[in-house]
Amino acid sequence: MIIDATDAILGRLAARVAKKLISGEQVIIVNAEKAVVSGTPRKICEKYLEKRKRGSAHHGPFYPRYPDRIVWRTIRGMLPYKKPKGRAALKRLKVYTGQPQKYQNAEKIIKTKDKLRCRSVTIKEVSKFMGAKLG
Q1: Which run of H or of E encompasses 86?
Q2: What are the sequence ranges of the domains in the chain?
Q3: Which of 15, 20, 53, 114 is least surrounded, with the fewest CB atoms within 10 Å of its CB?
């Protein structure tokens, strides 16, 4: 199953994907940087930056700054990743920034139907705020 994360609400996307992974499906997420988080952009960016700076540089917890890894980490939080079935489920997940060449003409790309009417910020903007070097 290939999911296009454009304009998808991150939490809802992660919950749906986690259910699919636990049930045994292979899930590929493309355009991860276009997923959105609802809320005031400044507060959301500061919240993610605080997560990144928490702990020590040597012992963790380590929080990613790139969009594909942020989406992956959000989905991991909804799985029992310390147990064998959760680890197996995470191995069935692939997350990409942009749309790779091999998935350009895939017919079964599922687009999300979430619509936000409030203020929001994309994961790409959050990543740039945290210092990710995006092209």
Answers
A1: helix 84-91
A2: 2-130
A3: 53
Residues 4 and 111: beta-carbon distance below 8 Å:
yes
pLDDT in tens, 4-37: 999 999 999 999 999 999 999 999 999 999 999 9
Separation of alpha carbons 56 and 91, rounded Å? 27
Among candidates 94, 71, 95, 75, which has minimal Cα distance to 22? 75
The radius of gyration of the chain's CA atoms, rounded to the nearest angstrom, is 15
Q: Model confidence at 57, in pLDDT bands (50, 70, 90)?
A: confident
The CATH T-level fold of domain 2-130 is Ribosomal Protein L13p; Chain: A; (3.90.1180)
Provide the token pair at 50: 């605080």
